[in-house]
C-alpha cells in the first residue's frame, strides 16, 4: 500500500475524502450519533461539513491518505493538527467553508456546540492532560477507511506515520474514539484510554473515549 501526505489536494482528492467520510458514517450507526450532534441532525449538511474540515486540515494541519495499489484510489485518510493548533482555530481555516456551514445550522445546534460541547472539552477533556502534555500533543480529528478496504492495514499504516514522527519529536498523540470497536483498535496500536466523558446532545447522547499514545507505548508491528 502507499501512504502519503496531501499538501495541496486537488478538488477531486478533496471530494474523494468527503465521500469516504460520508460512507464511513453510513456504515457505522454508532459513529453517526456524535456526527449528528454537530449537524443538528441535518445530514444534508454532512458533506459540506466534511469538505470544510478537509480543506482546513490541508491548509494548516497534516492530511494523510492511503492509496490502493494499482488503482491509486484514496481508500483511507487521517487528519492531524500539530501541537498548539486545532480544527478551525484560524480565520483562514474558517473561510474555507466552515463559516458558510455555520450559517445553515440552527441556533439550538450552535448553542449546544459552544455552551455544552465546548464547556465539556475545556472542563473534562483538557483537564485530563498536564500543560506540558498539551504543548507537545498532536491531535487526530479524523481517521476513516473505505469499508471495502478495512482490516487490510490501511488505518494502522496511516497512524504509524504520525507515531514515528511523534516519537522522534518526543511528542504525544491524542484523539477521541466514540465506539468500543474503535477503542479496541487504538489500544491495539499502542493507545491507552485516559478518560471517558459523557456528552449530552439534542440529537442523542454519546460518550467520548479520550485516547493517547506516547513514547512509552508499544511499538507498531
Automatic annotation (TrEMBL):
Q: Name one GO molecular function term.
A: acyltransferase activity, transferring groups other than amino-acyl groups
CDD domains, per the entry: NAT_SF
Positions of the N-acetyltransferase domain: 82-213
State the source organism's domain of life. Eukaryota
**Pfam families membership:** Acetyltransf_7 (PF13508)
Q: Which SUPFAM superfamilies match?
A: Acyl-CoA N-acyltransferases (Nat)
Q: What is this protein called?
A: N-acetyltransferase domain-containing protein
Q: Which organism is it from?
A: Psilocybe cyanescens
Question: What taxonomic ancestry is recorded?
Answer: Eukaryota, Fungi, Dikarya, Basidiomycota, Agaricomycotina
